[in-house]
Amino acid sequence: MAKENPNWEGLLKWSLSHSDGTGSARNLSEEDRRWFMEAMQAQSVDVIRRMKEITHVMQTPEQVLESQGVTPQDIEDMLDELQEHVESIDNANDLHSIGGLVPLLGYLKNSHSIIRAKAAEVVCTIVQNNPKSQQLVMEANGLEPLLSNFTSDPDVTVRTKALGAISSLIRHNKPAIAAFRLANGYAALRDALSSESERFQRKALNMIHYLLQENHSDCGIVTELGFPRIMMHLASSEDAVVREAALQGLLELARYRSGKSDASPSEEDDKLKQILQERIKGISEMSAEDLVAAREERQLVDSLWSTCYNEPSSLRERGLLALPGEDAPPPDIASKHFEPPLRAWGANRNPDAKSSTKKEEKEEAPLLLGPGPSSGNAS
């Protein structure tokens, strides 16, 4: 290729000139098709080249980089760029092929906390919904430094990022879940719940919920480790997300206990009842706007009360479980025109719910080794 980088301005003009958004698609000439394919291929090759350059930097000893004036902030910016590239599953899997995965995992042991945290964030992106990279990270013994940072790093941000990476690594990954359990992971999660960081607490609670869903029998282990007491404390947290996650965990444990024939009353039952009564009182005093926002919490409190005490909570009596307009059925305008079987069929339909996600835009990171395109430009 004559140019080091693809001509994105020219590519945009070419695309606009071949479609006005209203007419039918044009047949491309062979020259146009070749030019377009070369531009796209140049972008792909250029991203891999940048990933190789970043890999070379990660392989360079820290002392050498410092002697050349490279700062921890420079490394963090470089890892931020790498994270953008590996958002593509193909690029994430290619990182191992070009030799970049092992030095990236090595950065989890870096002396600078911002680098340890950012490295864990990149690992999280690589393994998210990516079984191949999950396996590669496990084979490279990547779980060990993540666990070390999660359990004992002095920086809570590093601990939180490491937990996020572990959560993505073990998802739908039974070998990783088994390794996490063997490494006394539940005890580490219990310690995380005692942290003063609400963000750390939220991540730990979400991971506990996932693990208990995957292995319901682990509810017994969690109970023996004292999780119910900690979760009851967090159920009164000022953070709404922490409260909901703690209530969800308590509900999982209550359902497990209710299914056991040898379950006996304990001191914690009275404490839980008191906490639920306080939550019901707090919900009753909420404004209309806050009640709408607390919909999940209202449902969790009622479900937990019903599971533990075999009766509906007072939220139902007060009309606070389902507010006017929530889950209201559509007006029945067809009942007079259709036969009952057809109406029953229509009532039982479950239209697919569509959700939209919005990807946060990131500022372009300074490049450590010269200009390179962002993988987001490929589209």
TrEMBL record:
InterPro entries: ARM-like, ARM-type_fold, Armadillo, Hsp70_NEF-Inhibitors, Nucleotide_exch_fac_Fes1, TOG. Residues 321-379 are annotated as: Disordered. Residues 351-365 have a biased composition (Basic and acidic residues). Residues 46-288 form the TOG domain. Gene3D superfamilies: Leucine-rich Repeat Variant (1.25.10.10). Keywords: Repeat. Residues 366-379 have a biased composition (Low complexity). PANTHER family: HSP70-BINDING PROTEIN 1 (PTHR19316:SF18), PROTEIN FOLDING REGULATOR (PTHR19316). This is Fes1A. It comes from Abeliophyllum distichum.
